């Protein structure tokens, strides 16, 4: 597995996939710089009249509803259809789904109209998308179920590969479940870390035949970079900078020495 | 006073208030990271169809007109009404008011329709809001009046607590006036420092019964962080990073040793 | 030439020109901080109802189509007309022109309706704007022509001074052509470097009578800052910070010792 991850990293640096992000305004700059650091090429564009043509140039599409508006939802639908028609991967990041009716409806629409390659969210977001209820009283499933249970039930219900991030990161489709235990708590102290990982997953999906391998590789690369960054600083401002620097300089040896990957179930 | 400030800081770190920011596109990332560094939780959302529900989850609302559009003004009004109904604090940051008719009208509408907990601006913005004219020829009051005079007259006219930032920061309601003399000139060399302080004031207001104490605490915490950051670097790029790091690590001792707070009038 | 550049830098720091940017959402923060670092004052505003009044306060206008929407294009046209009427410089940065019909039409409209002081783009963007075709099969001219040929042909066709950035930066009008060979490859590893240079060119144009001198000065200042920043770090995250710091601290000696400026043709 480690050799396959290293090969995908090499492919990104050589092929430089163009990642089209329709994402939230808070994280645009950080996402663009993170993709550059990895060796991919970012493009941000959300005008309805041009997203189809942007997709025509892109190698993957990432949809993130963090500061979604009615207009941008329409652009996402147009871009998503174009990406499906072209056959490039589409990653969906349902930021804050469940917090408002608008986001929940938007997420439902995206999931029903677009063929998604991957959904990336935290336990609460994934549970909400899958309609998991732990009890009759509607308590959030993420508070009573463990990670593997949530992601397994969710992939069954949603029929889409899922990356569920948290203290441990889980990657699953309907057949297989992996977990990655690298990373740093500092990832929760800065804005946009999860959003950046969604876009990085898009870059790995763009160069890989296997969805699960690509997502495992993306999580491995990103969380090992976070680990290295957290060895340089314990403060959130400097951590952002160190994370970008680490994303630009992870070596084969880093992956071989550090990766904590486990197959949890089949 | 120092002990009360320290207690509020502790409360923020424990209660982690959720601060809903409808703010300008330039400072969204910096504001979100600054709130995280403090220990609060940021959410940025401006779609009219969801802001009411976002407010339902929030502990304070911050309205900043830096890159205001007609649509976002409508969202601010909806969110402001919801915040008033729920009883959470609303901070208004009138960026650039007076520069255009659009901003001046927007500010008037926000002030007349929303019950504000605090207005945060510089002397020119506050003078404009309060309609202060120093002379018959309409010279900007901020050029001829001193800080205490401007803020006292403005709180009388506007009947809202005010935080007026500058070389010295003034905090006042109709009864009392404080000044804080901490800070660094580097705050004027980076974008979004004032905007971040407005959001940090929202976080302190969210955990305090007393408005004036909360705002004094916010200014104290923020300007002491700036002072510490400026001891690490004299350059603006690194200063942004150091400011975030300092916001995450101010100690009781920092507040006790450094705070330059003075009651100026009653 | 070096003394004239130094004099313009001094003028920016003293006159503090206000640069009105209607720019893309990815780079707003970096652009604002870069202008502050230089000593200029940034303002970002794109609401159609206020851009005319913003221009009334501004010393230069910068139009950047990186995340353009239909609405913001209208604001650009209004702002551009106001800037022309007032007689302040207008810089156009045609990000990604040629990638979509929407951007190409937008660029055509801006070029036909607004009197531009400068166009800043890479070789592909400039070639597209000028309609250069290297062969009958429509191969991108930037792949077969050298830099001096592209910029010379483009200034003839477009009749606007051009700054064409790349490994070497070219500055030309219909009479004269300069090249600057300073800079760093790290400029291509972070987002928004070119966009920031466009805004910095706006600042130099705001304080200069001579367009070509102003643009040569802007490129010299910016690329020498990049060179100094790249001496401090070889990583992209830290490079952004070092670039801002260098922009705030370039000295006379830096310009005299480092500038690689050459007159290529007349």
Automatic annotation (TrEMBL), chains A, B, C:
Q: What's the top EC group for this one?
A: transferase
Q: In which pathway does it act?
A: Cofactor biosynthesis; thiamine diphosphate biosynthesis; 4-methyl-5-(2-phosphoethyl)-thiazole from 5-(2-hydroxyethyl)-4-methylthiazole: step 1/1
GO BP annotations, alphabetical order: thiamine biosynthetic process; thiamine diphosphate biosynthetic process
Residue numbers binding ATP: 120, 165
What EC number(s) does this enzyme carry? Answer: 2.7.1.50
Keyword terms? ATP-binding, Kinase, Magnesium, Metal-binding, Nucleotide-binding, Thiamine biosynthesis, Transferase
Catalysed reaction(s)?
5-(2-hydroxyethyl)-4-methylthiazole + ATP = 4-methyl-5-(2-phosphooxyethyl)-thiazole + ADP + H(+)
**A GO molecular function for this record?**
ATP binding
Function summary: Catalyzes the phosphorylation of the hydroxyl group of 4-methyl-5-beta-hydroxyethylthiazole (THZ).
Q: Which family does it belong to?
A: Belongs to the Thz kinase family.
| Name used for this protein in its record | Hydroxyethylthiazole kinase
**Encoded by which gene?**
thiM
């Amino acid at each position: 597995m480690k050799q396959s991850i290293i090969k995908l990293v090499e492919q990104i640096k050589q092929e430089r996939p163009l990642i089209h992000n329709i994402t939230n305004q808070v994280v645009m700059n950080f996402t663009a710089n993170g993709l550059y650091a990895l060796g991919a090429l970012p493009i941000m564009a959300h005008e309805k009249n041009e997203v189809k043509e942007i997709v025509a140039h892109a190698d993957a599409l990432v949809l993130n509803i963090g500061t979604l508006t009615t207009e941008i939802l329409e652009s996402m639908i147009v871009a998503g259809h174009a990406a499906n028609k072209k056959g490039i991967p589409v990653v969906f990041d349902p930021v804050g789904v469940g917090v408002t009716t608008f986001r929940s409806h938007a997420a439902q629409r995206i999931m029903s109209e677009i063929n998604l390659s991957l959904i990336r969210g935290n336990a609460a977001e994934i549970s909400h998308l899958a309609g998991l209820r732990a009890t009759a009283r509607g308590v959030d499933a993420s508070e009573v179920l463990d990670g593997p249970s949530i992601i397994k039930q969710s992939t069954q219900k949603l029929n889409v590969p899922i990356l569920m991030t948290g203290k441990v990161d889980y990657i699953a489709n309907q057949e297989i479940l992996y977990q990655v235990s690298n990373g740093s708590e500092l990832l929760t102290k800065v804005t946009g870390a999860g959003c950046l990982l969604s876009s990085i997953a898009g870059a790995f999906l763009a160069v890989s035949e296997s969805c699960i391998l690509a997502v495992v590789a993306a999580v491995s690369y990103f969380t090992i970079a976070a680990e290295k960054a957290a060895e340089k600083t314990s403060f959130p401002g400097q951590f952002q900078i160190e994370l970008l620097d680490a994303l630009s300089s992870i070596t084969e040896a880093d992956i071989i020495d550090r990766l904590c990957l486990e197959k949890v179930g089949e």
